[in-house]
Fold this protein.
Amino acid sequence: MSEAEGILLKIAQEMLGEEAVSVLDLLLKKKVEMTDEEIANLMGVKVNNIRKSLYSLAEHGFVTYRRTRDKETGWYIYYWKANVEQINNILLNRKRQILEKLRARLEFENSNTFYICPEDFNRFTFDEAFESQFKCPRCGSPLVYYDSSRVKDMLNQRISELEEEIKRETKASSS
């Protein structure tokens, strides 16, 4: 299994859970189109559970399908495969999501003043500290000002790195 496929499985795990990852892992290993019934038989799982996982995977771009009509029954048959061609786009989208979360966190850090309990190290915004009269609501210790500049610096650095990665990968994929 390639490094990109391993990363893809990890992202799918975070987003969709173990059942979907098992299906994706099987499709990545087999490297061929398979019907939902073939997957269910190989995994020993009910076909409805497999279909649910496949639909979730398809919704997020991890798998694709091809649909044909059975000449005898008239029913549609779906052939599923891992969407290996889209791994880079999936990873790029995931990085964009992380970047947005980091920017939101930086905005929160920039727009608040913080206080910390010296005993249990819980951090509070100014409003929270004010409401508790600058005493820790858990242990009663007086809260002290917390300088969040190191957190902001770390967030700014990670945001810059991620922006550069996204810019580089977007340029590479459009070439």
Summary: Residues 33 and 98 are 32 Å apart (CA to CA).
